[in-house]
Hints:
Helix content: 25-40%
Strand content: 15-25%
Order of helices and strands: EEEHEEHEEEEHEEHHEEEHHHH
Structural class: alpha/beta
Low-confidence stretches: 138-145
Largest sheet: 8 strands, mixed
Radius of gyration: 20 Å
Distance between the termini: 22 Å
Mean pLDDT: 87
Number of strands: 14
Amino acid sequence: MSADIPGIDPLDGLRAPQDPDCDVFLTGTVFLDIIFTGLDSAPVRGTESWARGMGSSPGGVANMATALARLGLHTSLAAAFGDDHYGEYCWDALEQGEGIDLSMSHTVPGWHSPVTVSMAYEGERTMVSHGHEAPGPTVPDGGPDFPRCPPRARAAVASLAPGRGEPWVATAARNGARIFADVGWDETGRWDLDALVDLEHCQAFLPNAEEAMRYTRTDCPRAAAHALAERVPLAVVTLGAEGAYAVDSASGQSAEVPAIEVEALDPTGAGDVFVAGFVTGTLADWPLADRLAFAGLTAALSVQEFGGSLSAPGWEEVAAWWQRIRTFADQDPAALRRYAFLDDLLPAAARPWPLRRAVPTIGFRHPV
């Protein structure tokens, strides 16, 4: 289930009877991901390559939904699911396995699940996807109002695209949700912030360094973050191996936290996990630097496993990492102090490291 250490609720003490039941709402496409790891190089045309590792899991928007749920946030996902074994597996994995609310989702008769095959090697990945757009609305009753009428939520996560606005984003913002948004590569090449029509509804915007610099016409990601903070209350720019930099325009505060060095197995979904960690810290009212550190930590833990949703860490993984990292005699004391805020969140004892939660198959048959 989502909160895998009993009693850990990142919003403990902040919940009130009048608050919405949903902490975070999101919508998008669920893929069935098949991931191959342990490749020594890219596949060569006309040859067969054998991978040392393999995993299958719900992907696409399921990566973000799972990451949020595993951190203890009540998560609602609106998505179409294929009317096939892949779709059934993804539904059960998210609803039964992760405790994600799928009441806004539905299965589309006669529609097959989108599939992505991802090959990870040399710290990068190559993907091949196949799918068709789901017909009709993405709610069970076929009502015409979705996605204009999302559930009340503390927050919502949106993916912005040039020239395309989603009516539900404005509605969610009017209903009190704090909108967190990322963005993809601008295939038009214009990189026009004004074309991101839903940006005006966002509290936080989280592009990577290349996207941020292109959108702001700057040559420094930190300068780009300050420029973006003139458009949104909170700008967060991810810097890859360097960490992340954020600017809070309301307080004038900025923060930068370096990345944690890890041996990456599969980077699938790491950006989604980063956003989930940052959303968690923001809803919990943590200091800006703590939010960046936690987001970076969860992303670093995720790349050590295969699969986007399977690799998303919960509090159990965070606790095991924090317990283990303090046993190393050569740790920089200043680096340890950066994560000292975890002491107030985590239990004194945790399961030994390493933890493994990924299962490399679509589903085992369990004896009755």
